[in-house]
Amino acid sequence: MALYSDKVMDHFKNPRNVGKLDDADGIGEVGNARCGDIMKIYIKVENDIITDVKFNTFGCGSAIASSSMATEMIKGKPLSQALELTNKAVAEALDGLPAHKLHCSVLAEEAIRSAIKDYYDKNGIEYDPALFPEPHDEE
Ligand code: FES
Known about the structure:
Blueprint: H1 6-13, E1 26-31, E2 38-46, E3 49-58, H2 61-74, H3 79-83, H4 87-93, H5 102-122
Antiparallel strand pairs: 1-2, 2-3
Helix pairs in contact: 1-2, 2-4, 2-5, 4-5
Residues 32, 35, 37, 59-60, 62-63, 101, 103-104, 107 line the site of FE2/S2 (inorganic) cluster.
C-alpha cells in the first residue's frame, strides 16, 4: 500500500487556500519543535462565520495537505463548528496519514484554534479558556 493516500498527494500537490489575508480578523501560528515545521492560518469572520481562510505552511507534505484539507473543512462554517474540528477528522478526510505523520494534522487543528482565539482576543469576545489549551508537542 502506498504510504500516502491519493487525497494526501492531491492536497499536497494542489493545496487549496494557500496564501495570506491582509485584512484577516484572526491569525494563528503554531509550530512543532521536533520537526521545526510552522503553520500560519488567517481567517476572515463575519457574523460568527468563517467567510475566508488562507494558510502558509513551512513544512512537510503532510502538513501542507493537512492545512489544505482543514481550511476547506472550516470555510463557510460557524466558529463553533471550526473549534470542534479535530486532527483526527482532518486525517480521516485525507483518507489517513501514516502514524508518524499524525502530528502534522495536529498542527492544523492547533493553528485554527489559535486563529479563532486571536479573533476573540482582538474583538474582546469572552470565551472559556478551556477551549484553548496550550499547543502541545506531539510525535
Ligand atoms: Fe512535522 Fe509534518 S513532519 S509537521
